[in-house]
Amino acid sequence: MQLQKRLVENPNGLANSSLHKAVIFSLLLIILAITGVNGQAVSESIRLNQLGFYPNAPKIAIVLGDVSGPFQITSADGKKVLFSGALSQPRQNAISGKTARTADFSSFRSTGTFVVVVPGLGHSYPFSIRPNIHRNLAIGALKGFYYQRASIDLPETYAGQWHRPAGHSDTRVLIHPSAASATRPEGTTISSPIGWYDAGDYNKYIVNSGITMGTLLSLYEDFPDFCRTVDTNIPESKNNLPDLLDESLWNLRWMLTMQDPADGGVYHKLTNARFDGMIMPNQADKDRYVVQKSITAALDFAAVMAQASRVLRRYNKELPGLADSCVTAATRAWQWAKQNPNARYDQTAMNKQFEPDVVTGGYEDRDATDEWIWAAAELYLTTKEDAYYTAVSLFPDEKTPLPSWPQVRTLAYYSLARFANDLTPIAQKDIPQLKKRLIQFADQLRQDVDKQAYQTVMGKSASDYIWGSSAVASNQGIALIQAYRLTNDRAYLDAALTNLDYLLGRNATGYSFVTGFGSKSTMHPHHRPSVADGIEAPVPGLLSGGTNANAARQDKCAGYTTTVADEVYLDDACSYASNEIAINWNAPLVYLATALEALQRKANYSALQK
Ligand code: 9MR
């Protein structure tokens, strides 16, 4: 019943024909699961991208354990052998010591649905080979943001079986004593509705909105034409804006309310004092607060508003005045930052001084050097005023850090590289160095991938397996795509693809970390609506934080079965350190899947066999 329900929903706005194909494909899966493929069972030892592959791109499965024989690609029912090949020599996984072999079937280019068979071992989950193989994922992951919307009903037409009433109107948000000012004394209220819930919790954090919005807006700036073709079936889908921008506006407009009109400062977050229980949004009734203004919130806000102004300028007819409001908000936040450079958010110190204690996500960051650089770059690009550019040192050290919520420097590099031909001389002179750094960074990422057990960029070092490691994989993918944009060298794109393969199942856990995508995907994310809605399937299109070497110590959830860094993952809602979802993880997934779809033709991935 549940399954039937799932099949008739159309939550991601898929075209009817692809929906029918998806239904037929799912039925096929059920039949296969019951009967097995030609007597063989699914083997968890065969790991691959559970969605599939572009016809003319690398295609790899990883086979674990002590097997040597040949492998085959067969029809989905296992009856027709269509390709056979030899497994590679064994490679030892440097993290776990386990043995892995590669089944490389890149030269098999037929379209259709298949399985990898390793005689004696079993067969893989079914996968497809076709152009646009990641299109539904790109759409679904963007749709994931719709499901995170605060303050609005999600009706069945758009949300399918995950429809729900509005929660958290946030029209009467208390000024926490840490945020009190002359014009907004403690205990008075402001209206700060809409926006996206941050993650599995229902709070709204400016810092994390920063990198999330920056990533989505950059996707639009990098691939505007393609983005205009993406339809996520949201209430705004029929208007003149691309759905990516409509969705982003939901959070942008919330962010604007987080700026104090009196001084331009930006509250660090809008939050409960304590996390809600595992309840639906409309059941939540705790007081909500805005807390103290912070330097990182102000600078991330400034960067986002400056970039949004640039992007929205061409939609001035549809959104009169918004581009102007955004750049004004950005400059005011920048001015505030200049006057308050030491306004670090320190939750422990805040709680010592003020009541009530606030114990929700901290997003604390001791070092705002990178936020200064990002804000300066975006303000410079939008206003063309050299003063922003010269206010910071673009290269404070030799590093090109992978973007993450506390480290946004490289977002500045991406934006400057994007507009390299449209800069004033002062910035122009840095472009060769900047491009060199981006390319060197990508070269480091793709170095020695062929020596890795899983043949992915992700996981070359055990230190990749942190809280939210799925975003490490996706952000590495973005860095590689940036290098592809600078060089047109397909090797960078192939490397980016290895990390999408990682996220969709070619990894040491065997899971696809995207809810609703893949035969064995995250089913029990730490996500309040998915836990509380009584629906078996989790809200779709959400990226689990994934493998986290320290998860057991961090969330103390019972049930972890391994301490091997690349395997520590628990598909259980109690595992907030390995199985939460978050907007700053979904955004780079949207970028990676969408960019690969946008580039597949140029990269010749979609070329069909003649
Ligand atoms: O993504 C954040 C991760 O880098 C931190 O290690 C972790 C602990 O501080 O917090 C993560 O962010 C969480 C936030 O604080 C609250 N909402 C859920 C976020 C994802 O787990």
Short characterization:
With 610 residues, the chain is of the alpha+beta class. Helix content is 39%, strand content 9%. It has 4 domains: 35 residues, no CATH class; 93 residues, Immunoglobulin-like; 231 residues, Alpha/alpha barrel (Glycosyltransferase); 176 residues, Glycosyltransferase (Alpha/alpha barrel), CATH 1.50.10.
Write the layout of secondary structure elements.
Blueprint: H1 2-8, H2 16-35, E1 46-47, E2 52-53, E3 60-64, E4 70-75, E5 81-86, E6 91-92, E7 99-104, E8 112-118, E9 122-123, E10 127-129, H3 135-147, H4 156-159, E11 173-175, E12 189-190, E13 204-205, H5 206-222, H6 224-227, H7 243-257, E14 269-271, E15 289-290, H8 295-312, H9 322-339, H10 347-353, H11 369-383, H12 386-390, H13 409-418, H14 425-428, H15 431-446, H16 469-487, H17 490-503, H18 528-532, H19 551-555, H20 576-579, H21 583-599
Parallel strand pairs: 2-10, 11-15
Antiparallel strand pairs: 1-3, 3-7, 4-5, 4-8, 6-7, 8-9, 8-10, 11-12, 13-14, 14-15
Helix pairs in contact: 3-21, 5-7, 5-8, 5-13, 5-21, 8-9, 8-11, 9-11, 11-13, 13-15, 15-16, 16-17, 16-21, 17-21
The structure holds ligand 9MR.
Distance between the termini: 43 Å
**SSE-based structural type:** alpha+beta
Question: What coarse outline follows from CA principal-axis ratios?
Answer: globular
Major sheet description: 6 strands, mixed
Query: What would the average pLDDT be, to the nearest integer?
Result: 94
Write down how many β-strands occur, each being a DSSP E stretch of 2 or more residues. 15
Low-confidence stretches: 1-19, 21-25, 27-35
What oligomerization state is this entry in? Answer: single chain
As for the number of domains, it is 4
**Helical stretch tally:** 21
Ligands bound here? ligand 9MR
CATH class of the largest domain: Mainly Alpha
